[in-house]
Amino acid sequence: MASPAVFLAGAWSAGRHNCIPGILIVVAAAGFASALAFSALVFKRVLRPLNDMTDAARRFFNAGYRLDAVIPRAGRPELRDLAGSLNRMMLELQSYRAFQISQIMEEKNKAQALIDTISDGVILVDELGGIIYSNQAALALLGIPRVSPEVVLPAAIKNEVFAREFAAILASGEKFLRSEAEIKLPAAPEDGEPTVRNYGIMASRFFLATLKRQGRVVILRDITNEKELEKTKEAFFHMITHDMRSPLATIQGYAEILRRKLPQSPETEKYFKSMVYSSRRLRGMIDDILNTTDLQRGVMAMTLEKVCANALIARVAEQHEPVTTPKKITVSIQPLPQELEFIADAALMERVLTNLVLNALRSTPAGGTITLGVSQDAENVLFWVGDTGPAMPDDKRGTIFEQYSRMEKQSGQSMGLGLAMCKMMVELHKGRIWVESEAGKGSKFLFTISKSLKASSASQAKTLD
Amino acid sequence: MLKMLIVDDNTEFKTMVSCYFTDLNYTVELADNGREGLQKVRTFKPDIILLDIMMPDIGGIEVLRELQTYDDVSQVPVIVITGTYFDKNMSELFRQEPNCKEFLAKTTELSYLAKKVAALVKKSL
Question: What is the ipTM of this complex?
Fold first, then answer.
């Protein structure tokens, strides 16, 4: 600022030259006054409007983007324009923000309405077990009266089965978890009977960006009705399968009677053999289904008795003659040098080997060979069924023993239950089953039976032959 | 000629088994229920009895125990044949009775049944 300097210069020169005429003093005073006036003008027209703008902007931010008072349009024209633009900007920001918030609120309300309406329990927990969000259904199921920071899962859960499940979920590092639990719900006051419901529990992990922490969404779904329906369907299927045995036995029986009554010829003998073979196959399928269901229900009872290994493979090998003869497939056996007796369920052993042979028959081309063999070591008896069919693809070797898996190439031919049943039955005999396959050499199915099994006393005592 | 008594309320099964064993030179007598079976057993004097479990009047297990009290038939071998599901616990129960020599499902193949019958008859002669 120039004016104080001019004033000082004036005063200094005035002190030095007393003889200087008064006119100079007047000039200096005028200069000082005009400097003062100029600075006042600068303050009023430039600095104040700028301060007003700063203050207004600060108030606007502090008020959460709410514009309480507009900036007065004052000062120089440029600054008046600037104030106008600022006002417009703040107004727009305010309305934009209001719009955003109402949209977010709407989204939140929609999500909340959805989550509260569905009957599944939905609960979001953080990694420490604190509840981030929960719908009423989940709170009611878990027996938590109200969500508060003190509520920590699984300790706050009343039902011990749910508490165990939540403890497992919180302890697990898996991204997705799925389990089922049978829950005894407390008696309703009006009818007084405690009810047992089945719940499907699905948990999936997510990342809480703002908290930089892992959380979990847990869904509790009542699957009691699905379970019951499934059980009914299964029972119905089981019953029908079971009832099929009796008419089949009648057909088999009369076929045998006819075979004895009719004058024999090579043709009739061939026909009868095919009839017997097919009815035995059907009977085998029915037994497989019934055995599998029993096993899954945990009611499978084995009749453990002495089985002759060599006799077993010989019996299974000769049964398939009606199919092997026309297909020109050779069935050979590789028995042990000495007879070996081991403890197993004879009927189940026969089913496992028969299924493996049927499987080999499907994949072996005409003129091929199927080999049944047996060997042993100290702990196990090892059986195998080899064929000269195409090699089994690597990726299929693990899955063929799963229920209802099929090989695509064998269009429509079921490998569904057979091999799955084999696996279950072998495992029931404390053994394992696997397949070895090499291009050009066919496939070889092998299974072991543990020698540690003990004969069930009653059935052993009363076995005739 | 060997004599066989079949005690069963299921006509279809009874007829089929009867045809089969008649053809194998057995003399076959049929009883529709437990009561009739217990009556016929005294006059017919069978060499072997095929007995069903589920019958409308007297069940298989009662017939089996009653037979043990008849002096002349207490040693006659009985094959219990069940049409209901082949329950292994049930089979253990029946096998406790001394005259029950075999416990088979009705769906057993006839040739297998014939083998069992022949073996039992031979033993008891």
Answer: 0.82
